[in-house]
Specification:
heterotrimer; A alpha+beta (821); B alpha+beta (334); C alpha+beta (166); A: alpha+beta; seven-stranded mixed beta sheet; 20 helices; globular; B: 334 residues; 13 helices; 19% strand
Chain lengths: 821, 334, 166
């Protein structure tokens, strides 16, 4: 059909425009109802009693006194919620309330529902818990060295949760062919999402056995599953409504203890129960960036062409699994999608420690290795005397190719991104030419537009949309996706509006309600625009086809000539001849009955099928390049960042203004991670969060935020709706390495660790002054007993995406085979 | 949501009423001005007064809207009003600087001069929620028996975190206190104790009503603040430097007749370093003199590991920041 | 207690220890005022008292007797958005929208005192409000756009704000 074009063109009336978001007015008037804004009659307030020990066995809990406090309606302990849960099927290791063991300071142990928050808080002090403390583990290195006591009784060994060993081609051969080999050890400190909205949840249970939960969650579908599992209720009797999230960034992607607890309390008391976490408790929910120690060995030819890369990562997972298995894979997955890596070996380990669990924070597992690779490339470029921008440009992964680890790259706009930031920043006039104390640094990155595989194994769509066309001309889009501020509700409206030729602000959007909306897996992995967008596109195109058929009949023209635009349905050859959109719906409804369509999206199959191939594939990869300008005070080590230039290949903007907002917001969060954000723990008294507060967790203010010069690169990807790829996470990634590289340009010291704090810079400067290695960073990666590697020959060595049984596989690399991709 | 414990709230209109209310309430009573220090502390159960007496309606403290009379600053002036007072800026620029560096614009709209001068000392082990403090078995500043910063120490090492106080000590200001026995005047330097718990010499019933500043008379002062972010953060180091110019005042070769260097954020009180001041006397603030003073300030600066940043770095920064403060004074000399 | 709430007299009864934040949200149902820490460490609960932006989590409700309190619910003129609200919506300065009411009110106070703020003055005025979504840039641009319109200028967003640099 002539009008069915996914590619964006100048004819588009909605796609690509900087329109307001459909919920903009609600947000600027304070009308948006976040979870804590909800209240129900007779509502009770819940508070959680949390562990004061990083690791201990619970030997007794006495709740008698708490139950006797006037106003207390129920007290729960681990015995009341014995079924384990967890976001990944392979790590169902959490309990809503710890039944026998606590694993970090802040682990929930008991819960109270009372008539007021004050009473519930007072009751916590009346619960007597007896603990038998166990030795606590403070770091991943300590976990490697300390197999007992085990924090969990599963995992490959001791306190290791996951070990990965993958080899794509013979890296030793690759290193042998290199002109230069570098080995670097780097560390990326943990950080947290810090959404301004503290998590909140409200549960209602009615006498007919129906449970409703409103929650600030990014993943209502997974919460729905967890509730059904733990509460042993039929899923059909549970309704989960994700309220608009007051910021998520990955921090509201797990099913949480407090959500299950208020549901249970509502069931026990028969009254609505609400919980609103304090800021301190939000730090205990965490699921943020894994502190990650990395070792990377890269061989290059004189021209910078990579011959092989060997990457090792050790992740500090905290007390529970969360998304950790996926996070670990992600620290090894995307090294290959930016610059051509012909042979690649990845060894990843995740350790359990007695700290709040780590999980998916913006960039999920990929900012750490990206930091390592981009900093190392900067060092390599210097050694090879090649401009770092030029080095990268020479060796880009070609579009429409498959990488050594079997990721299929579609559109690839990184070259254009680099060119933009190089030109815009005046890179060539500045790099290695600014006065001491001033510097510029460049780094690049890539990120997924949605994970290729779902979190739990199934072969159903990842996103579903239902569309209702009303005879009034109204259109309603139903989708399970959750707006966490990124504008996903608006994306649905824009796409449907574009296809049906109506005003996007005339479209009603109903989302994130398991009773009303078809499943969308959730707002994580930058999947929503691409996946729910494609589902919406399909539903809208199907509706358009129905309407076109009946309008064409009325207009006595072929279906192909029907155009939908400006709220009308008309003849492409004679635009004056047509009917109003509402009239078109009426024609169709009269002929066919109620007009409703559905759309679904399932990502394409990944070419890889080895164990572990499920993490990394995506329908499309976004690309970013950034140049940071820094000022370093050599007396204090304080780093200021006046400007960051950033270019992002978004494929195609659905709404340019929201894309800009995501880029700028990513730069902000990246800047915080680069300079000051840190999940700091005490190890002296107890392993516990140093200061879980908004004052002492340093989120940059207006006075630290840099100027951002943004370039949007539009290289449409055939897998994206109208060519769109992700933007919510990718632009964060180049910021940290760009800043680190710029610090080196400014004062000649390497801080191979984030955050790049004044103390570290000054220590490196002092070493430099003493003639020592001008560097601050880790020096060793611990010995880990890795399992036998899975050997998967890369595509250009005759591989088919499967592991080779035993041996070293078919090592028949030829330059001819390398050229074939 | 973190909430306040319940209490009785009183809003006296006069100083006499306020003092009487406090006497009636006894040790269970607390004065509050802007509330930006007390209320967060109450929410975390650091202080649990049964009666809270607001001073914001007391006209004697606010001077009826006329904030500045001669060299007297009323304690009830908000930090915003203080920072934007053109007369203060003209004659007491260091006070303006310190006031406008406190926390955030929002907090300065509420917090008062008196509140900042009486600010509770702070510590990473103390400024925590109740559950956190319970997990470490509390500390001696509230509910516990030990100082976790220096476990063998008999005293509390919480840190003086006021920005304005070091300036007042450096300037040699006098504080006017009203108490049940009447009014008394205390030099700023004697208002503070180097003890994290008993950090004020003020009696609990007394109210800091005003600050008398020395007349502008050939002296100058500056304040430099070190912290992670340009807003919100308390000082991890504050440097207030004051010099009295002698011969050749206002000229390049002017000689320092007297000088004071006061550090904030490194002890439980604004810590004057007499050796640093002495190193400047009789000098023209030459590079050598400044270096000597910076070195002198560095030595007794003993930050403890209870604020943001590593303490060794904070100690090193004493030298840098004292140097920079003195260099600014030299530049301002004209 | 009686006070002026968004231009209308308001009588409300509550416990003495409740903060203005709690009174607004819980006793008056005005949930447009948000909270992020309740300790004065984020600025999310900003409201105007007698035109001055303050942290409602650290103001007692009782301290507002007889005073003028303005919340985000009082910004629009009937169905017409305040120019700041309009500019925030137009530029996407509200992403998740949670900190937005606080930024709007802090910005309104700024523009009342300074109708033509420089970028640095905006940064200073908003330095007490944290936003984790936007990186503040769209917020600055929205404040500048609204300021221009409130001065009577026919201002439009810069193309590079909405579409990036060429």
């Amino acid at each position: 059909m002539a009008t069915r074009k996914k590619k964006a063109t100048s004819e588009h009336r909605v796609i690509g425009k900087a329109l307001r978001k459909v919920d903009a007015v609600a947000k600027v008037t304070g009308a948006t109802k976040f979870a804590d804004d909800l209240a129900l009659p007779r509502m009770l307030y819940c508070k959680l009693l949390r562990s004061p020990h990083p690791h201990a066995r619970i030997t007794a809990i006495d709740t008698t006194k708490a139950r006797q406090l006037p106003g207390v309606k129920a007290v729960l302990t681990g015995q009341d919620l014995p079924i384990a849960f967890g976001i990944l099927p392979v790590s169902q290791d959490e309990h809503a309330l710890c039944p026998d063991t606590v694993r970090f300071v802040g682990d929930p142990v008991a819960a109270v529902a009372a008539t007021s928050e004050e009473t519930a808080t007072a009751a916590l002090d009346l619960i007597a818990v007896t603990y038998e403390p166990l030795a606590a583990i403070a770091s991943a290195e300590q976990a490697v060295a300390t197999p007992t006591p085990r924090i969990h009784d599963y995992g490959p060994a001791g306190n290791l949760h996951k070990l990965i060993n993958l080899e794509f081609g013979d890296v030793d051969e690759g290193f042998a062919a290199a002109d230069l080999i570098r080995e670097d050890t780097l560390f990326f400190e943990g950080s947290t999402h810090l959404p301004m909205e503290q998590h909140a949840a409200l549960a209602q249970y009615t006498a007919d056995g129906k449970l409703t939960l409103w929650s600030s969650t990014q993943t209502p579908h997974y919460v729905h599953r967890a509730l059904a599992r733990v509460l042993e209720l039929p899923a059909a009797k549970i309704r989960v409504i994700a309220c608009p999230n007051g910021g998520g960034f990955g921090g509201k992607s797990d099913p949480f203890s407090h959500e299950i607890v208020v549901a249970k309390l509502a069931m026990v008391t028969g009254r609505p129960v609400k919980v609103t976490l304090t800021r301190e408790e939000v730090f205990y929910c965490h699921r943020g960036r894994h502190p990650t120690l990395m070792w990377v060995k890269t061989g290059v030819k004189k021209d910078g062409a990579i011959t092989a890369m060997h990457f090792k990562s050790l992740l500090d997972g905290g007390g529970y699994g969360s998304y950790g298995v996926a996070s670990t894979y992600y620290t090894g997955a995307l090294q290959t999608v930016t610059y051509h890596v012909p042979r690649y070996k990845f060894q990843g380990a995740r350790a359990f420690t007695n700290k709040p669990p780590c999980g998916p924070k913006r960039g999920h597992g990929t900012p750490q290795p990206r930091f390592a690779v981009e900093v190392q490339l900067d060092k390599i470029a210097e050694q090879l005397k090649i401009d770092p921008a030029e080095l990268r440009l020479r060796h880009l992964v070609p579009p429409n190719s498959v990488t050594a680890n079997y990721l299929r790259v579609g559109s690839m706009g990184l070259g254009a991104c680099i060119a933009k930031v190089v030109a815009g920043s005046g890179w060539k006039q500045k790099f290695r030419r600014l006065p001491t104390g001033q510097g510029v640094g460049l780094a690049c990155s890539s990120y997924l537009s949605g994970a290729g595989l779902p979190i739990y194994w199934n072969n159903m769509p990842h996103s579903g949309v239902q569309l209702k066309c009303d005879r009034s001309g109204g259109v309603t889009v139903f989708c399970g996706s959750t707006d966490i501020g990124q504008g996903s509700d608006s994306i649905l409206a824009y796409i449907v509006a574009e296809v049906l030729g109506v005003d996007p602000f005339h479209i009603a959007v109903v989302t994130a309600d398991t009773d009303l909306t078809p499943v969308d897996l959730g707002s994580y992995s930058s999947r929503v625009t691409l996946m729910s967008g494609n589902a919406a596109l399909q539903a809208a195109e199907r509706a358009r086809d129905i309407l076109a058929r009946h309008a064409a009949k009325k207009l006595e023209i072929p279906d192909e000539r029907v155009v939908f635009a400006d709220g009308r349905v008309f003849d492409a050859q004679d635009p004056g001849r047509g009917v109003a959109f509402a009239a078109a719906v009426q024609l169709a409804e009269a002929a066919e009955g109620t007009i409703g369509t559905v759309g679904s999206y399932t990502p394409p199959r990944s070419p890889g099928s080895y164990r572990g191939a499920g993490v990394g594939p995506s329908p499309a990869y976004s690309y970013s390049a950034a140049v940071a300008h820094v000022e370093v005070d050599p007396e204090t080590g304080i780093v200021r960042v006046p400007t960051i230039w950033i270019a992002h290949d978004v494929g195609r903007s659905i709404n340019a203004a929201t894309v800009m907002g995501q880029v700028e917001g990513s730069v902000y969060m990246g800047l915080g991670e680069a300079l000051m954000e840190e999940m700091a723990y005490r190890g002296d008294l107890k392993v516990m969060h140093k200061i879980p507060s908004l004052l002492e967790y340093k989120s940059p203010t207006t006075l630290e935020m840099c100027d951002v010069v943004t370039y949007l690169i539009e290289d449409p990807d055939p897998n994206g709706p109208f060519g769109a790829k992700e933007v919510g996470q990718g632009p964060l990634l180049p910021v940290m390495p760009a800043v680190a590289n710029a610090v080196y340009d400014a004062v000649g010291v390497r801080v191979d660790e984030v955050p790049i704090t004044p103390e570290k810079v000054l220590k490196a400067l002092k070493r430099k002054a003493k003639g020592e290695e001008p560097r601050y960073g880790p020096t060793a990666f611990p010995e880990i007993d890795w399992p036998e590697p899975s050997r998967v020959p890369p595509p250009w060595e005759g591989g088919d995406g499967k592991e080779v049984e035993g041996g070293r596989g078919r090592s028949q690399a030829t330059t001819g085979a390398e050229r074939q991709h | 949501m973190l909430r306040l414990p319940s209490f009785t709230y009183l809003q006296p209109q006069t100083l006499a009423d306020a003092l009487r209310m406090k006497q009636d309430a006894g040790p269970q009573g607390a004065y509050v001005a802007g509330g930006t220090d007390l209320y967060p502390n109450m929410k975390r159960r650091h202080q649990e007064p049964r009666t809270v007496i607001s001073l914001m309606g007391v006209r004697d403290l606010s001077g009826d809207g006329k904030w500045e009379t001669g060299n007297v600053l009323r304690a009830g002036i908000t930090l915003t009003a203080l920072a934007s007072d053109t007369s203060v800026r003209k004659h007491y620029a260091a006070v303006t600087t310190a006031a406008e560096l406190v926390s955030t614009p929002l907090l300065r709209n509420m917090g008062t001069l008196g509140g900042n001068l009486c600010l509770d000392t702070r510590c990473n082990y103390y400024n925590q929620g109740y559950e956190w403090r319970k997990a470490i078995d509390f500390c001696m500043k509230k509910d516990g028996a030990i100082c976790w910063v220096a476990p063998s120490s008999p005293r509390c090492w919480a840190v003086s975190s006021s920005d304005v106080a070091p300036v007042m000590v450096a300037l040699g200001a006098d504080y006017v206190l009203a108490g049940p026995q009447g009014e008394r005047v205390v030099p700023a330097g004697r208002f503070y104790h180097n003890d994290g718990i008993n950090y004020l010499t003020k009696q609990p019933d007394e109210i800091l009503t005003a600050v008398r500043l020395p007349a502008p008379d050939g002296w100058d002062a500056v304040y430099h603040k070190l912290r992670r972010r340009g807003a919100f953060d308390f000082p991890v180091l504050g440097v207030a430097a004051w010099v009295k110019w002698g011969a050749g005042r206002g000229e390049r070769g002017a000689v320092v007749q007297d000088a004071r260097v006061v550090l904030g954020g490194v002890a439980s009180y604004p810590q004057e370093v007499p050796e640093a001041g002495a190193a400047l006397k009789g000098t023209t603030l030459s590079d050598d003199a400044i270096a000597a003073a910076a070195e002198a300030a560095y030595r007794p600066s003993k930050p403890m590991d209870n604020t943001d940043f590593e303490l060794s770095w904070r100690k090193q920064m004493t030298q840098v920041y004292v140097k920079r403060a003195l260099e600014e004074l030299r530049t301002r000399r004209g | 207690m009686r006070f002026d709430l968004n231009g209308e007299p308001c009588d409300v009864t509550f416990a003495a220890h409740k903060t203005l934040l709690e009174v607004l949200r819980e006793d008056l149902g005005l949930t447009g005022t948000k909270h992020g820490c309740e300790l004065g460490e984020c600025g999310t609960c900003t409201v105007l008292v007698d035109g001055t932006p303050v942290l409602s989590c650290l103001v007692l409700g009782l301290a507002c007797e007889g005073r003028r309190v303005k919340t985000v619910e009082g910004m629009a003129d009937g169905p017409r958005l305040h120019p700041l609200q309009d500019a925030f919506a137009e530029l996407g300065a509200a992403q998740c929208g949670y900190c937005t009411p606080a930024f709007l009110l802090a910005a309104e106070a700024l523009l009342a005192a300074n109708p033509r703020p420089a970028r640095d003055e905006i940064k200073q005025a908003l330095a007490g409000n944290l936003c984790r979504c936007t990186g503040y840039i769209k917020i600055y641009e929205a404040v500048e756009l609204a300021a221009a319109r409130m001065r009577g200028e026919d201002a439009k967003p810069a193309t590079e704000s909405l579409y990036g640099h060429p």
